[in-house]
Design goal:
The chain is 27% helix and 26% strand. The chain is built from 4 helices and 8 strands. The strands form 2 sheets. A 5-stranded mixed beta sheet has the order 3-2-1-4-8, covered by helices on one side. Strands 5-6-7 form a 3-stranded antiparallel beta sheet, with no helix packed on it. InterPro entries: His_triad_protein.
């Protein structure tokens, strides 16, 4: 009779262990997620529809411009880039060769405001804002006007 109780107790424990989910295989998905940032202001200024169904007259420049990541906001320890119809946030400094939104440009700065260097310019902090000074201003190759690109794409 004692062996029957031991056998039943063992079977009950094995059954419970088999029913319990395997927690070792579960991973914390938060470690693998990309942080997307989309503020109301940025959404209003830069959001647009993108139609992937194109006919023979498709403008390939549209795809090239749409695939570029353009820095739209600079923070103390990170920056936000627009990529098509969504945004990405990255830790660290703005890359020296980054494409810059026209909205971030500033006409003048003082040497004590320089935070980091870019190709042909600097990231500067004026007040609480991080902005970009470029030697060539809006004429620089890395400047993008996202508002104009959005309206151009809406017309197509």
């Amino acid at each position: 009779m004692t062996s029957k109780k031991i056998l039943l107790a063992s079977l009950a424990l094995v059954s419970l262990a088999a029913c319990q989910p395997n927690q070792d295989d579960q991973t914390d998905e938060k470690d693998n997620e990309v942080a997307y940032v989309q503020s109301d202001q940025a959404k209003d200024e830069y959001e647009h529809d993108h139609d992937h169904d194109h006919d023979h007259d498709h403008d390939h420049d549209h795809d090239e411009a749409h695939g570029q990541e353009v820095v739209v906001k600079i923070l103390a320890d990170s920056y936000v880039s627009a990529h098509g119809d969504h945004f990405h946030t990255y830790s660290g400094k703005v890359p020296a060769d980054a494409l810059i939104s026209k909205d971030l440009l500033v006409a003048d700065y003082s040497d004590d405001q320089v935070v980091s260097d870019l190709d042909g310019g600097h990231v500067v902090k004026q007040g609480e804002e991080y902005l970009v000074y470029l030697d060539k201003g809006q004429e620089a190759d890395q400047v993008r006007d996202l508002a104009a690109e959005t309206s151009d794409q809406a017309e197509k």
